[in-house]
Sequence to fold (950 residues):
Amino acid sequence: MIDRPPPSRRLQALSVVVASLVGVLLVRLWQVQVLQGAAYFRQSEENRIREYTLAAPRGIIYDRRGRALVANRPAFTVAVLPLELRDPPVVVARLAALLGTPAPQIEARLRAARARPFEPVRIARDVDPAVVARIEENRLDLPGVIILADPVRHYLHGSRAAHLLGYVGEIDSDELAARRTEGYRPGDLIGKAGVEKAYETLLRGVDGRLRMEVDALGRPLRVLSRQPPVPGRAIVLTIDLDVQAAAEDALQATGLDAGAVVVLDPATGEVLALASMPSFDPNLFARGISPDRWQALASDRRRPLLNRAISATYEPGSVFKLVTAVAALERGIVSRRTVFDAPGYFRLGQWTFGDLRAWGRIDFITGIAHSVNVVFYTLGYRLGGEVLAQYAFLLGLGEPTGIDLPGEVAGTVPSPATKQDLVGEPWYPGDAVNMSIGQGAVTVTPVQVARMVAALATGGRLMQPHVLLAVPHPQHSPDRVAPVLQRQVSLRPGTLAVLREGMRAVVDRGSGVAARLPGVAVAGKTGSAENPRGRPHAWFAGYAPADDPQVVVVAFVEHGFRGGIAAAPVARAVLEAALARQEGSP
Amino acid sequence: MSRRLLRYLDWPLLAATVALLAGGTVILYSAVQNSADPWAVVRTRLAHIAVSLLVLGAVLAVDYQTWARLWRPLWAGSVLLLVLVLVAGRSGGGAQRWLAIGPWTGFQPSELAKVTLIITLARHMDGHRDLGSWRAVLPVLVHAAVPMVLIVRQPDLGTALAVGAVLAAMLVAAGTPLRLLAGLGAGAAAAAPLVWRMLHDYQRQRLLAFLDPGADPLGAGYALIQSRIAVGSGQIWGKGLLRGTQNLLHFIPEQHTDFIFTVVGEELGFAGAVVLLGLFSLWLWRGLVIAACAKDRVGTLMAVGAVALTAFHLFVNVGMTVGLMPVTGIPLPFISHGGSALVAFGAATGLVLNVGMRRKKILF
Fold:
């Protein structure tokens, strides 16, 4: 043992190793606890506190008589906190089984929200309370799954006024980019169409925040603070639910696939009803529409999502004869006593333009009443395309009316100067003849026709159609929307008088007798618009009472064949409902 | 025990041990305070401490030279138990580490093996006058490798590495020439890829998570991130005993066993951690002094082995909570809940005290 080397140097080396290990630990603890301690403390606070968004209910939408059209109802949303989701495939599979949603769909939603792992990703809205209860029971097996109380938009009358009201849906990336400064976050609901979209800023409230202490499994322990949500502003629409219902029911009663009705107050431009057929149920969107159903709606050949009153253009047919008549009267080439020879055809060089039948010698009023083509061929030929287009524009065709709804289109009014650009064909001499009866390349929207007829009914006042009547205010009387006079078309009183006489004759003894109402003088004009897609479209545009216009109605039935047969009865039903309302209200 | 022996008992080391056991009990209570029955856990812990102290006394009562003479049956017994645990052991947490004693309790033979290997390796190394050649070193390596491989098979990589650290420290203390030590180090490095291939998936994930915990913050990196947040958030003075939010809200897995240091760090802060490390330093320092003053080479090697074991556990366990070390299932000596480890460290303490008590020279 004497000759063995003393171990002390080796032991010293080991002591140094042990001391430095302890030293390394001390330095690291100093670094983590003292130097970075504050940051880690913050993280531990964030761990312990979870902020929930309390979704603000959207504003309630009323009709002009205070009846609720759209409200909210309490509902449960199942959401996932990505950061808390341990073992995602297993949890997603369990959740899929509970919700009855395919797992890939849930995964896709989680993937889409990957950029913001701290925000809850909403998986299913308006979940059945029984399913919510089962999720709560299985909370331990579903780490990261939370239940939120999100109000769901409720369209009280189902598909009534669906196109007008619109619907809500989750904000998409484009909308998010455009509205970032307004405080939208992924997963928020936003108006996607109709009034919901147009008045998004008013209807949307301010979300509240709920700060809660939670444990590592996300189970809430206590509320730390609560900032209640501020509901969105209620709005009152110009719509009258009864008139709207009458319009939709009358459209349905035609037994045809598609159509639209626009009802205006000609003095103010207030929209009393705006219907489009076929319709859809916006409640489907409020719950978060499934991809299958969306696909079914979007690819339906009847295009139920299309608002035919403002977003679709059609050949106006004989309704356009009002434009031709105004132009001819203003230019002085016709008067109420002018007599026309109507043999049933009109010849222009090598072309012949047809008519329903031979009428013999008739005056201008009869020409309007029976929509005699030859009368308007003659006038249109003499006026020329340039003048016809000028008056069409003057009366508001070929441009959006500026109605306060998204998705309005302009329509087309070709003229010799612009036809090549608009429809890719040169202007032929016969085009003015064709245009005079609303054929050729002219297209309009029902709301444009309604605004035009309102202007003719009120002495040339072109009022902007609008659907917002007032915004109730908690402190003072509601903010009412002032009518907007867009243009005063200066028309001679004689022009208006002849037109009124002609339009009354249409309903009294002409092509629109089906719109006749007992005790009320109705003025109108029918139209049957030839179109390349099938049978002619049926139009009726008119107002009542004729001597004191209160209501303007435009009824349009796709492939309805004859305005007097398919569209006039619709207009009649709508006028009846609208005038009854006028009598009923002070 | 004679009065002379008691006079030589190293009281500071024993005091550090008792302080760690007592403090550890308080920390354990905090870690399990909102479990169903925290006092039941504490009662179990007190029973563990009692057994641990009994074993400490038993190890102390018999001269360490006697223990050394029993090296063959000790080694054979340990290896037998390790084989038995692989054949008939109970599983827990994905590994088969437990051997049942009766229906309610059991123990981990690997914990026992760590201590018996200190004794048997010390005796084996002492049997060679020097470890100057591969012919002398190789049998020692085989001696250690057999139980190590058995432990890895459980699988319990951490404990196997602890045995490796003990072996290395004892080889250094035994005077193995540097060129052989260097060769061993190179061999270990060369074997690393082989070991990587032998590892289980979860072990590889832990190692990868250690390198980059952010890569999978909810999976393998979760414990690493949350434990560092817990320790760091304690700052200088801690959030107060029983008041750690990471602890109370169960953000830390295994917070009463392998991750118990996070409770110290979070609730008692840097100050508490320094006190804890101070107690361990006292223990390790006294162990090294005893190693230096032992009356023979076996005693020195035994004390070195015990010091190496404790130091390795301390460094790896605390290091894992602050991101210095990967996650391995290594308990914090005297503190973590777990009977086998407590008993093993009681035995190790007994061994060091044994060597110190039976020295010839007077300390200081």
About this structure: The mean pLDDT of chain B is 88. The two ends of chain B are 23 Å apart (CA to CA). The beta strands of chain B are 90-92, 95-101, 105-107. Chain B touches chain A through 54 residues (CB under 8 Å).
